[in-house]
Amino acid sequence: MFGPSRTRFLLVVLGVGALDPAPASSDPPTTLTVGACQSCWPLTSTHPGSILIPDGAGGVFITWTDAGPHVRLQRVNPDLTLPAGWPAGGLLIGADLAARQIWPSLASDGAGGLYVAWVEQDPVLDTQVRLLRVRSDGSPETGWPASGVVLSRPNQYVEYPVVTARGNRGAAVAWIGSGPSGREVRLQMVDSRGRIAPAWPSGGSLLGSGDWYNNIVGLISDQRGGVHLLWTENREIRSDVRISIVSERGQVKLPGRRLATDAVPVDATMEQSHPEIAPDGSGGAFVVWTDVTHGELNRAIDLTDVFAQHVSATGEIASGWTRWAASGRPIAAGSWYQLNPRVTADGSGGAFVAWSEQGPGILEVGRVVRLDGTGEVAPGWPTEGLALGNVAPTLVADGSGSAFLMWNDGTEAYVQRLGGDSRPTAGWTAPMAIGSARGKGNPLLALDGKQGAFVAWEEHSGQRRAVVLRHLSGAGAEVATPGPASGPAPLAFTVHAAAPNPARTRCRIRFDLPARASIDIELFDIAGRRVDFLARHRMFEAGARFVEWDLNDRQGRPAPAGLYFARVTTGVDQAVVRITVVR
Known about the structure:
The protein has 583 residues and is mostly beta strands. It has strands spanning 9-11, 32-38, 52-54, 60-65, 71-76, 91-92, 100-108, 114-121, 127-134, 149-150, 158-165, 171-179, 182-190, 205-210, 217-221, 227-235, 238-246, 257-258, 271-279, 285-292, 304-311, 329-332, 337-345, 351-359, 362-371, 386-387, 394-397, 403-408, 412-418, 432-436, 440-447, 453-461, 464-472, 494-495, 507-513, 517-525, 530-540, 543-549, 562-570, 573-581. A five-stranded mixed β-sheet has the order 1-40-39-36-37, with no helix packed on it. Strands 2-33-32-31 form a four-stranded antiparallel β-sheet, with no helix packed on it. The protein is globular and about 80 Å long.
């Protein structure tokens, strides 16, 4: 029936009626546990975009803090295996194991490696900011000490450093520390060899000070060797979101400009907080923040609103946004509370903005909207934002006008890819459920450079936390299954039931290999005619593996509805599973 046969043939038959509804797959999610620890802070950060970053080769770098606490770094391939030289438990960052390392931040160096910034506390409780450049193989870059370069003076209070690369000129790091005038925002620049940049003081340059801070400093490159620096400055009851542009020579081109200079309304206290900054792709920046409007407290409405602003590479309000120069562009100014804004550029001059809404007796709702280059709501998007779950969605744009989003509804966690018109992109007819929302925290997204994305989150179970990673294609399919690093190899060759089955858009064929092997996977229709080869003499490593069938034949034409057979062959072993295609 299926052409020449080989020995030890196993037919796996599952009774699935062609007209039955597609059952939910009982297969576990395809994930890789990167690390686990107790009472630690795996992915907690005020800079979520600096914890999981692309490696430039289709994989990612990810960092977390173990129970030491010590900072760990891992690189993961597109197929969720670990590159040679990278230990299964992650690479330890910093040479002093007696010290505490906390609050890591990552940035690609543009050459296949990355910069890692962190805070290190010695046994006498002095803290310093350190920076290390790491090669793609996990070793320190030439000229960089394994302990990292010290960027700040010893200080009893240093928090949340954030790092950004400055092209091939090195990196910049900003942080919050204590000083004689209260809390201070400082910035330091180093060259690509780990030396403090010319004209920069050894302890970093003071950019801002205030009575207190909310621990958030934003930092992005201006694509000219300098940076945009964002922070919230607090004095008495007033707080202002401020931005500066600083050149690589330390010249402050924009000295702490307030992004909202007029109160909204006029008697507001301007208690601004939760700022976030994202590069616009042209050397400028998109910024979002929240504003507590004290004057409206008496009416008990509009307590907290979300605003945005677009700043050009020179520090001016971007063209099209000048009408909101005084107060920022109101994004969400409805009743009660709009909180936790997030922003990412859309690659077309605009941006995606996400936030959450809540109020007394009102279930919290997450929302997202796309703004065009002039700050107007893009066509196809509701002006109040698209409702997604009950928390502010995590989001990352793919540069083509689409964006990946992750959220939960209190029961399930979901991932979705939306196009520039708010509709799901091809292959994403419905959000992909990735498991129960219970116990999942701090979700992160990073692009793979091939229209797909990595999804990471924390799994909580009592005091134990695990860092979990998953890789999805741009069409919503699993890219790969974990390799041997995620657990012991299977004891025997096994082919599992196809899923989903019946199949309407795609189907996954999963199999386990006890050792590395060459695999053939052929598809036949009910008459025994070969429909396609999904794999032909393809080498697979030991472990749990799968291939996807897009329900097309070898010419790319949709396969007609009906019964099909997938034959998986390795050496003298083979097995067949049944697939019902429904159109």
